[in-house]
């Protein structure tokens, strides 16, 4: 299965991926309307430390500890992708407590968790963060 | 191969899934004395809160048993195991033969002796049936008394607080949630609950009950219309113990989840786990732990090889939109941040993170948890940075390359 992988040394720390994530998941087509003046809650986050920058989002782990720990069965595998069913989720945050990447988080509207679904849950259909990364610091491909 | 699983909840389901992944042909039977499709046990409070319903409470999809070719026997109590003859004897006289057996019987409510309890109806809060029965009694003019300010008692409180007139909670401990919080953390959460009208009688206990009111040791008299007893749970060890298997407070197993009886495995709340944050065997009655144990048992039952060697206590509990995330053991040096109603406390010694308390600071808490579960030497990370903000920056570039540039 294709996943998002990080090429740390190419990351400029521009945070564009965070904006592109927020835009894709706003379900709007006008970027200005989607983002201007808004606090964004992207599912990808860039960490910055001196010269080092990298983006982190859900790794879609093989035997994902979030899926194993979810109290409601809201997290499951869909063809290898770790999917969240926010309709089932009760927002207990057990998944947040166990994800070793800090890649699943409370949704801004409260009451449920949110995570990267590789843009299968929005209009873009393929990871919008990767598509707009100018330096190939994140890529979407098959790896072992 | 015939697999029998007693208990249709997290541990039992996890085992069945792993067995089926390895053994496509074997016959799997899950039996339970509850009447329902597997449901997330912690969801019963969310059900009363109106955050979920019978359909969405299903822990696995409606076609789970059919898809995995699992036979179910619901509303059936297993009475006895004969580990020599490899038989489980069921209530009503029937029996089931097994090659590999999993005991995933969980726990049951502990009801302490209280004078007058025989004369008042009361509820416990463990099952969906308990929640449905309690719900029938809820109405805006009723007063509720909950005995027990632990996780289950307070989740019950959250579930019903806004559906009744008042809720009072009595507990012998001097603070709420003593199993997961220190005094300061408990006082923050207590304030939250009091905002929703909850009244607490701590360092106190019920001295006697009569219809409509309880007399407490302190002399206080608390009127109530509904009584809920949530004073703790006791693991269901009897099946294994009576068959001659080793038990202490919980069922004892090896790290493959096999009991001292050959081909009898045990997993979940009915067992003890070896807590690696304090190096002792204890009961960790928590859902993720039940899943880890059940999955491990399943692999071994089906002839694979799995070892469960990193059990830790870890709990995420929410009340009215605020979140308490805790894990590990509270020993060693501490690091604290207190800002408004948020609270962070880390416990560590020279080499390892031992535990943490996070109140309304859930962001990326799993990075702390990973330090606990992996017993990561703190010399391998920038722990000073990590204290303030859990992040992957605090790890080595090589670690990040492992985790972010490869399949995990
Ligand atoms: C109100 C509440 C809230 C909770 N909240 C959380 C939470 O937020 N996070 C968390 O991690 N954990 C929570 N827990 C704990 C969590 O539910 C348990 O850790 C988990 O359900 C354990 O799963 P299990 O499979 O070991 O056992 P259980 O879920 O207890 O299931 C055991 C099953 O076996 C059946 N059984 C027992 N004996 C027999 C027999 N002889 N014959 C037939 N059937 C039998 C029982 O009826 C039961 O259905 C909560 C528990 C409660 C009650
Ligand atoms: S949310 Fe975390 S644990 Fe779950 S699959 Fe993604 S990276 Fe793995
Ligand atoms: S917050 Fe939602 S997805 Fe996460 S563990 Fe709880 S119910 Fe499952």
Structural summary, described in words:
The complex is a heterodimer of chains A (144) and B (408). By secondary structure, chain A is α+β, with helices and mostly antiparallel strands. Chain A is built from 5 helices and 8 strands; from the N terminus they run E-H-H-E-E-H-E-E-H-E-E-H-E. In chain A, 46% of the residues are buried. In chain A, the strands form 4 sheets. Chain A has a two-stranded antiparallel sheet. A two-stranded antiparallel ribbon of chain A has the order 2-3. In chain A, strand 4 and strand 5 form a beta hairpin. The mean pLDDT of chain B is 97. In chain B, strands 3-2-1-7-17 form a 5-stranded parallel sheet. Chain B folds into 3 domains: 173 residues, FAD/NAD(P)-binding domain, CATH 3.50.50; 115 residues, FAD/NAD(P)-binding domain; 87 residues, FAD/NAD-linked reductase, C-terminal dimerisation domain (Enolase-like, domain 1, 2-Layer Sandwich), CATH 3.30.390.30. Chain B is built from 11 helices and 24 strands. Classes of the chains: A alpha+beta (144), B alpha/beta (408). At the A-B interface, strand 1, strand 2, strand 3, helix 3 and helix 4 of A face helix 8, strand 20, strand 21, helix 9 and helix 11 of B. Bound molecules: flavin-adenine dinucleotide and iron/sulfur cluster (2 copies).
